[in-house]
Amino acid sequence: MNFPSVTKTSSAAISAVPGAVLSVCLTSVGNAASVVLYDNTSGAGTVLCALAVPAAATSVTYSPPGGIPAYTAIYATITGTAPYVTVQYKP
To answer: Engineering a disulfide at 32: which of 25, 55, 84, 89 sits with its beta carbon 3.0 to 4.6 angstroms away?
Structure first.
């Protein structure tokens, strides 16, 4: 079964409805970056997961077995210089 994925370059909503985070990939070439996923429609509330890429690395991926449930929505707060994050989720 195919599930949707969204790629963002700045903080934004991933999904406006409840669902589950299936995988997160944070990429930033040559610069430190981070992403925090929230169970909310904004960058506050319950943290679903957080990833960081140090300046010497290029990407990090997290694929939790069974996914991480989000009971409200999924929102990504992204920091760093020119990073992007791809989130696959189940609505």
So the answer is: 55
pLDDT tens, 59-70?
999 999 999 999
Structure tokens belonging to residue 78? 């992204």
pTM tops 0.90: yes
Evaluate whether 3 touches 63 at the Cβ level (below 8 Å): no
65-87 pLDDT, tens per residue? 999 999 999 999 999 999 999 99
Instruction: Write b or e for each residue in 46-81: b if 16 or more Cβ atoms lie within 10 A of its Cβ, otherwise e.
Output: eebeebebeeeeebbeeeeeebbebebbbbbbbebe
What residue ranges do the domains of the chain occupy? 5-90
Q: Are 86 and 28 in contact (CB under 8 A)?
A: no
Contact present, 10 and 47 (Cβ < 8 Å):
no
